[in-house]
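*** Query protein ***
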Amino acid sequence: MMLTSINAPVQIGRATVFPGDAVLAKAGGVIFIPPHLLEKVVVNAEFVGLKDSFGHQMLREGKYTPGQIDTAWTDEIKNAFLKWLDDNPGKIPMSRKELDEYMKSRTW
């Protein structure tokens, strides 16, 4: 192989990768995230992870049905989620203030 350029777009498979793109590689595949979308993608993924953890726990405990957890949440479930966050501060990967700001714009 021969180096032809530095900090130039490259083609990997059918994906075009630009300088500065973040790479997320998992067993199921690889994704390239443009830097201007990175924060939004990470914060959204962390929030979805929190919702999933809460949902799985509620299903194991039999408090809610899968139909309740997998559809738009009622105010009761939203309040239970907020209480769960208060009871499990170690599971929150960001400050509570940042999470509260994010949830203001969230449509659940």
Strands lie at 10-12, 15-17, 22-26, 29-33. Residues 10 and 102 are 34 Å apart (CA to CA).
